[in-house]
């Protein structure tokens, strides 16, 4: 493809997107420009052939697809800074939490295809789930953006009103899964493994469990039934976790996170 991509905001997610784009060969590294005020931290991407700069205006001018990956409170000023460079060739993709398509439309003030995409950091290794909604885009423009995120993992097209929920489940979810894995590693060390082996076992076990659901299309409880030998050790462990509020604490955490987005 010949489109040039500008990633405005080369932080945790912006760099993960750049890494994923390079790995997937969706585009050549020299078709990507990534910006931040202090671009010195982007040297690794520069070594791979990506253009790094603090100049949003030139990055936008020289691109067709603009991915906004700054923090929510920064977006209005950032768009204001490059707004004059936006022309009919541009498509805007925002991965910013809590900023709606209509907010973006007000900031951009031009009739351009606008996308909200909610990926997670596994986009760096093409294993994201990216929830997408959009406005003002043709079928061709939409399929270009969807194809791009499909090369970076899986895509769910969703109603925009579910975007905050998608943020919590899909994007924050990476951190929640990591904490679950970390707790397993801590427990694994207590019952005898060195940290490295405990980490391998915990991570591969979670990966295998997720793959069972994705490949079999089954419900978690069906897979649990296959593991819980009657009178065995799994059910004893699971029930103790539930007595201690395992599912309840996860549900409450997800809802607290969701309420935080609504409050901001
Ligand atoms: N991290 C995640 O897993 C996810 C994050 N998001 C959303 O993505 C966005 C980015 O999050 P995250 O990457 O974690 O945040 P970071 O703080 O890591 O990244 C934001 C980046 O924006 C840069 N920046 C700030 N001002 C400007 C500017 N004027 N021009 C260009 N770049 C600028 C900052 O660098 P500098 O200070 O050098 O300018 C920083 O590197 C947020 O809106 C977040 O809600 C969504 C899904 C997942
Ligand atoms: O913590 C945050 O606000 C961002 C949104 C999703 C993941 N990180």
From TrEMBL:
Domain of life: Bacteria
GO molecular function: pyrroline-5-carboxylate reductase activity
Keywords assigned by UniProt, alphabetized: Amino-acid biosynthesis, Cytoplasm, NADP, Oxidoreductase, Proline biosynthesis
Compartmental location: Cytoplasm
Keyword Transmembrane: no
EC category name: oxidoreductase
EC number: 1.5.1.2
Keyword Acetylation listed: no
Gene3D superfamilies named in the record: NAD(P)-binding Rossmann-like Domain (3.40.50.720), ProC C-terminal domain-like (1.10.3730.10)
UniProt-annotated binding residues for NADPH: 56
Annotated positions binding NADP(+): 8-13, 69-72
Reaction(s) catalysed (UniProt annotation): L-proline + NADP(+) = (S)-1-pyrroline-5-carboxylate + NADPH + 2 H(+); L-proline + NAD(+) = (S)-1-pyrroline-5-carboxylate + NADH + 2 H(+)
Domain Pyrroline-5-carboxylate reductase catalytic N-terminal, residue spans: 4-96
Record pathway: Amino-acid biosynthesis; L-proline biosynthesis; L-proline from L-glutamate 5-semialdehyde: step 1/1
TM region positions: none
Any Gene Ontology biological process: L-proline biosynthetic process
A GO cellular-component term linked to this record: cytoplasm
Chain ranges of the Pyrroline-5-carboxylate reductase dimerisation domain: 160-261
Cross-referenced InterPro entries: 6-PGluconate_DH-like_C_sf (IPR008927), NAD(P)-bd_dom_sf (IPR036291), P5C_Rdtase_cat_N (IPR028939), P5CR_dimer (IPR029036), Pyrroline-COOH_reductase (IPR000304)
Pfam hit, one: P5CR_dimer
Similarity remark: Belongs to the pyrroline-5-carboxylate reductase family.
Function of the molecule: Catalyzes the reduction of 1-pyrroline-5-carboxylate (PCA) to L-proline.
Name this protein carries in UniProt: Pyrroline-5-carboxylate reductase
Lineage, broadest ranks: Bacteria, Pseudomonadati, Bacteroidota, Chitinophagia, Chitinophagales
């Amino acid at each position: 493809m010949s489109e040039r991509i500008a990633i405005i905001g080369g932080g945790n997610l912006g760099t993960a997107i750049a890494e994923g784009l390079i790995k997937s060969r969706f585009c050549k590294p020299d078709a990507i420009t990534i910006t931040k005020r202090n671009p010195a931290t982007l040297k690794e991407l520069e070594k791979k052939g990506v253009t790094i700069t603090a100049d949003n205006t030139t990055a936008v001018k020289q691109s067709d697809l603009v991915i906004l990956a700054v923090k929510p409170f920064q977006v209005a000023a950032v768009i204001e800074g490059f707004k004059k460079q936006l022309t009919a060739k541009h498509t805007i993709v925002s991965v910013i939490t809590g900023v709606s398509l209509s907010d973006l439309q007000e900031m951009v003030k031009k009739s351009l295809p606008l996308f909200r995409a909610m990926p997670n950091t596994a986009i760096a290794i093409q294993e994201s789930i990216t929830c997408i909604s959009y406005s003002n885009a043709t079928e061709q423009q939409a399929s270009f953006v969807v194809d791009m995120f499909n090369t970076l993992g899986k895509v769910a097209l969703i109603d925009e009103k579910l975007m905050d929920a998608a943020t919590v489940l899909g994007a924050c979810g990476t951190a929640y899964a990591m904490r679950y894995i970390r707790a397993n590693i801590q427990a694994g060390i207590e019952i005898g493994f060195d940290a490295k082996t405990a980490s391998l076992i915990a991570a591969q076990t979670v990966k295998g469990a997720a793959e069972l659901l994705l490949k079999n299309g089954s419900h978690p409880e069906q897979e649990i039934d296959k593991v819980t030998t009657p009178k065995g050790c799994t059910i004893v462990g699971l029930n103790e976790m539930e007595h201690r509020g395992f599912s309840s604490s996860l549900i409450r955490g997800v809802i607290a996170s969701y309420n935080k987005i609504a409050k901001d």
